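Sequence design from tokenized structure. All designs in this work follow the same two-part layout: the structure record, then the generated sequence. An example of the structure record is given first.
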């Protein structure tokens, strides 16, 4: 692939991950508004996150086979069209549906943009992985840093817009963000793409599923997804309802700073990856993430709790891209099948983690112990949810310690 051509392809991939960040992180920023305006409780809000990631999870399992049949280009064009259409529906359906059907409309819109997000997640990573020889060893981490920058932009722009927009005009926000995936379609319509080898994917699927080492990596991805997504999805609401910070500053110092920390670390490591071994960073990140979750849940100091939410971004920054990078080395013949299955594992964690926190938070309002007994019921529930969330980075750490450093030689058949 020519020098100028592959740069156009990579730019489109980077824009894709910014679009992916929008569809993942915009709905949680609207949780408080949706709860106040439409009476949607914490468990049902958490269920929207569950629907988002379960849909992506299903798509993860189908995307590799679909790409074999219709090609990367058509799948990526469809992905961005669905992402944009889903965002438009998320904004407009609550305006036209009767009150009893609004939640169902939000669920339907979430399914539509989640299908697009699932396709983006599975197909963009192998495209960049194939270009690693041109881009350098840190290309995967750099790609995922653009997801973080997208998250920063989503939180920053959306928070400021929600602060100045009248509440009844909130639907304009997802309509504006829908422009981005539609614009990204133009990039993929022209950029050259190397199509997958359709004869190998099915064989590789079977080989990976019979490999015990792969299932350990699958578990690592699941815990990484849960550790990252749980804090990312709930930091905004926790800052406002769990700590008592004004929404504007809660979003900026919680969700936005969380994403900024992830972006900076991923970009730094992507630039200097060859100088630092990855495994120690992942182990330290897992341990630090456990500490951050516990501090956010148990600290009686609001500033310290908010700082712990933000610093979780540092701790989880390399978990997802680092696991993908190590897996590509351990299973060098994995191709699209490997990235599809790993995305499936990550989305299992992204599905269960935020939903479980919402469930625990809703049912934990009546639970009180230790320093939590003097807190309002809603704060108790949210803090208890974060306390349970510490199990996710702990699981990541245990699986990492149980595994071995990947070998750079060998194929899927030999792993």
């Amino acid at each position: 692939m020519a020098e100028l051509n592959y740069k156009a392809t990579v730019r489109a991939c980077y824009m894709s991950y910014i679009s992916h960040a929008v569809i993942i992180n915009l709905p949680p920023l609207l949780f408080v508004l949706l709860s106040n305006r439409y009476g949607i409780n914490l468990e049902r809000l958490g269920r929207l996150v569950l629907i988002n990631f379960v849909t992506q999870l299903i798509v993860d399992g189908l995307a590799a086979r679909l790409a074999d049949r219709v090609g990367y280009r058509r799948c990526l064009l469809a992905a961005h069209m669905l992402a944009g259409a889903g965002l438009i529906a998320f904004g407009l359906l609550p305006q036209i549906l009767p009150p009893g059907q609004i939640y169902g409309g939000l669920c339907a819109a979430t399914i539509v943009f989640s299908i697009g997000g699932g396709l983006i997640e599975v197909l963009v990573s192998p495209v960049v992985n194939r270009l690693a020889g041109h881009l350098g060893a840190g290309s995967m981490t750099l790609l995922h840093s653009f997801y973080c920058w997208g998250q920063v932009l989503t939180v920053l722009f959306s928070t400021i817009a929600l602060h100045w927009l009248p509440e009844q005009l909130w639907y304009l926000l997802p309509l504006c963000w829908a422009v981005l995936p539609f614009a990204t379609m133009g990039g993929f319509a022209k950029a050259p793409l190397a199509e997958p080898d359709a004869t190998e994917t099915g064989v590789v699927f079977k080989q990976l599923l019979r490999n015990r080492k792969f299932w350990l990596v699958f578990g690592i991805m699941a815990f990484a997804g849960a550790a990252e997504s749980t804090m990312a999805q709930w930091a905004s609401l926790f800052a406002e309802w769990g700590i008592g910070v004004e929404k504007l500053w809660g979003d900026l110092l919680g969700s936005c700073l969380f994403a900024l920390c992830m972006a900076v670390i991923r970009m730094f490591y992507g630039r200097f990856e060859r100088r630092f071994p990855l495994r120690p960073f992942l182990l330290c990140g897992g341990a630090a993430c456990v500490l951050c979750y516990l501090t956010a849940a148990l600290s009686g100091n609001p500033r310290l709790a908010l700082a712990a939410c933000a610093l979780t971004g540092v701790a989880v920054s390399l978990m997802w891209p680092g696991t993908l990078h190590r897996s590509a080395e351990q299973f060098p013949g994995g191709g699209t099948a490997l990235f599809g299955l790993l995305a499936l594992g990550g989305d299992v964690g992204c599905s269960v983690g935020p939903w479980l926190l919402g469930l625990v938070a809703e049912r934990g309002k009546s639970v009180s112990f230790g320093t939590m007994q003097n807190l309002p019921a809603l704060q108790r529930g949210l803090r208890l949810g974060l306390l349970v969330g510490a199990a996710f980075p702990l699981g990541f750490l245990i699986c990492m310690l149980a595994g071995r450093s990947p070998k750079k030689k060998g194929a899927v058949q030999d792993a």
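The chain has 18 helices and no strands. We note this feature because it recurs in several other targets discussed in the main text.
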